[in-house]
Write a structure and sequence with these properties.
By secondary structure, the chain is α/β, with parallel strands linked by helices. The chain has two domains: 4-20 and 247-287, ATP synthase, gamma subunit, helix hairpin domain (Helix Hairpins, Orthogonal Bundle), CATH 1.10.287.80; 39-246, Pyruvate Kinase, Chain: A, domain 1 (3-Layer(aba) Sandwich). The chain contains five helices and five strands. Strands 3-2-1-4-5 form a five-stranded mixed beta sheet, sandwiched between helices. Helix 1 (4-59) packs antiparallel against helix 5 (212-287), helix 2 (92-106) packs across helix 3 and helix 4 (147-162) packs across helix 5. The chain starts with a helix and ends with a helix. Produces ATP from ADP in the presence of a proton gradient across the membrane. The gamma chain is believed to be important in regulating ATPase activity and the flow of protons through the CF(0) complex. Belongs to the ATPase gamma chain family. Its main location: membrane.
């Protein structure tokens, strides 16, 4: 049986841990509100752009721009994985890594190989545990994701697809729904997926100003940048929500552990007091 000093030391240690988890929860909650506001503001624009580009891909000849062209070969696909640089956020990074590993292992589209471009240190570590080595890793950009950062990554992706180094590009990230709900989403970023044809709606040929080539050359790469930026914001809000939930659970578990240890401490102390009383009474009886 543990002595009183050991139990008291353990209670003090758990209380210190509880203070840390409570502080981390408060920090995550403050960052979560900011990240939530950012993704709610960015979603409408990203969704409308995706809708417009899907409609455009349905009506335009794929030959007018490389990003609309679907490569016939199934050589190498790029998987852009969005994770986090910090841990202590539950299964946030684990779920992304599992979905990525499943995508590569199942290989339903029949590609010869996959290239992994990972955003976040923890994503690389989780993938490595599953036997997948990241070809390129971007670190220290998830804490404060900006459109400029997303644009640089988007330019690299577009350049690789136009040059034929990649025959498809997939985006894997945690989609944000609420502070306690995040789900992994796998989107095909390139080639741009056309909208489904509707027989009831007659096709409308878009009018371009100043010229079709100039408009497509501007809007198609920007679409890729916007979708990557949206994924970064989705992932940031999901990360802070997951960390807030994880720290809340940790604080509750620490509280339960403190209660159990306190009960154990009182029982041991009572047993010690009882033993001392018995010894005193026995000693007095023997003297008489």
């Amino acid at each position: 049986m543990a002595n009183l000093k050991d139990i008291k030391k353990r209670i003090s240690s758990v209380k210190s841990t509880q203070q840390i988890t409570k502080a981390m929860k408060m920090v995550a909650a403050a960052r979560f509100r900011k990240a939530q506001a950012a993704i709610m503001a960015a979603r409408p624009y990203a969704a409308k752009m995706q809708q417009v580009l899907a409609s455009l891909a349905l009506r335009e000849d794929p030959a007018v721009h490389p990003l609309l062209q679907k490569h016939e070969r199934r050589g190498r696909a790029l998987v852009l994985v969005v994770s986090s640089d910090r841990g202590l956020c539950g299964g946030f990074n684990l779920n992304v890594a599992k979905s990525t590993a499943q995508l590569v292992t199942d290989n339903r589209d029949g590609f010869d190989s996959y290239e992994l471009l990972v955003i976040g240190r923890k994503g690389r570590e989780q993938l490595k545990m599953r036997g997948l080595i990241a070809d390129k890793v971007y670190e220290d950009i998830t804490a404060d994701a900006t459109y400029a950062t997303a644009a640089l990554i988007g330019q690299e992706v577009v350049e690789g697809y136009e040059q034929g180094r990649f025959d498809a590009v997939y985006l894997v990230y945690n989609a944000f729904y609420s502070a306690i709900r995040q789900e992994v989403s796998i989107d095909r970023l390139l080639p741009i997926t056309p909208a489904e044809a509707d027989d009831q709606t007659p096709p409308v040929q878009p009018l371009y100003e100043p010229a079709r080539g100039e408009v497509l050359a501007s809007i198609l790469p920007k679409h890729v940048e916007v979708q990557i930026y949206r994924a970064l914001l989705e992932s940031a809000a999901s990360e802070h929500g997951a960390r807030m939930s994880a720290m809340d659970s940790s604080s509750k578990n620490a509280g339960e552990m403190i209660d159990n240890l306190t009960l154990q401490y009182n029982r041991v102390r009572q047993a010690v007091i009882t033993t001392e009383l018995v010894e005193i009474i026995s000693g007095a009886a023997s003297v008489q």
